[in-house]
Amino acid sequence: MQNMDSLEIIKLRKQLKLINETVSNEIYNLGDSFFEQIVIKLNDALGADYTYIGVLNDENNEMTTISLVNKNGLMDNFSYQLKDTPFENVIGQTPCSYSKDVTTFFPKDQLLVDMGIEAYTGIPLYNSKSVPTAILVCMFKKAITDIHTFEALLLIFASRAGAELEHAKLYASLEEHKNELENKVQERTKELNQKNRELELSNKELGLAVSKLSETQNQLIHPEKMASLGILTAGVAHEINNPLNFILGGYTGLKNYFEATNNIASDEINFFLNSINVGVERASKIIDGLNQFNRSTDSFEETCDLHKILDDCLIMLDISIKDKILLEKRFTNSSVCIDGNLGKLHQVFLNILNNSIQAIEKKGKILVQTKLLDSSVEVSITDSGSGVSKQNISKILNPFYTTKQPGEGTGLGLSIAFSIIKDHNGTIVFESNEGVYTTVIINLPVTRNSHE
Amino acid sequence: MSKKPIILYVDDEDINQMLFEINFKKDYTVITAGNGFEGLQILKQNPAINIVVSDMRMPILNGIEFIQKAKEIQPKLPFFLLTGFDITPQISEALESKLIHSHLKKPFDIEAMHAAFSKALSL
To answer: Is the Cβ pair B84, A291 closer than 8 Å?
Structure first.
């Protein structure tokens, strides 16, 4: 009798300890560890052969263990069809216990047979919505007399285990959602970055387009200005002719008067008369030169006197040259005639001479030479200006290439000059030493030339 | 006593008319007109005119237009056009079609003009 009591006491002590532990904070654990702890302790406390917690699938016809122990410790989990097993009765219903011969009640349950199970106790576990989600089972290889005591013990754990199960489920769901969110955020961020990059690119392109537009605008204004200038100078030229005529006429009259009256005019009077004459001559030359640029004919069959063209251009540019540049002319003795377009040839040389002048910052020299070759004339214009670098020298004939500020020129001058020279079957080359000099050599075919 | 050849000078500027007369009165008889219509009138009334000189820029009828009409009255006379320095396409066409004998520059180159007139008269 005493032996039985001590055994009982030991057993009860164990069970009490188990109960204490379950409700204490020590086992307050999230995740699988809780379930493993519980089944381990339960198995031990109840002296069971197998203890496990099994989770139902959605159709409630299959159970998968999430923690399973035997007397030796944790075992691999397994899945099991519920049909014809004691679990079928447990799910969503009341606890179910069999103190012995459980296999006779469930002959089709192969698992019970294979494992040699005699006694069985199982309780359903619910979630917070009172939906059956799992079961907690202890299986014994021997008959258990106080199986209902065991059942009661299991019930203590039911709500806690159920809650933990739900907790674990919810936590997993949270993790899943968290990951999903993170992925979505990453994706969106990627998309936004991409859009950002695209916008930046468009912006850049837009910026380029805008600056190109304003550049073109400036360039368009220039020809407009040139066109109005042409009209203006044509008008001026016309209007000035008459007053010049008056002056010349007056001069002629006075000269004749002095000659007719045999009055030998004093030196001073002669000088006065001469001044008037020279003035008219110079003014006429300037007007003449100006008109050369306004010629509207497209004919390439005009007879062009090269030296006169060069002189016209030099007169036009005289103002820029006067005090800062020393001009040297080395023209060949013969006169040089070219068949072409007078106005356009004026444009060519005016442009090149103008470039030479502008290349010279403070003071310098310009040398204009003409040399007759077999069937062509070589015109070379050398200036002592800033020159062109080696990498730019191949670009200077390109349209819009310019070293000037925007608005100060189109960069078209040389490219237009080049095309005019081509139209005259000529050639143009550049030689330069940066900071020292630049020479432009133009070769044009001559048609008639008179050698003296 | 050879009579001096008669030149009709058409120019809307009075001073130019005076200058022309002064410069050529020694060798020619100069009759002046202030515009194209006046010139045409004078030409009709004066069949003895030998040479016609006209300025280009004039009101209503420009030089070429005047000469075109004048040619209908006196097709055989030499017509000279006074031009500035630019030969417009209209002028080069008139030269090519022999509407005008030749063009003279303004301001006057007296010597050149004398030479041109002599040449025209000797033809």
So the answer is: yes
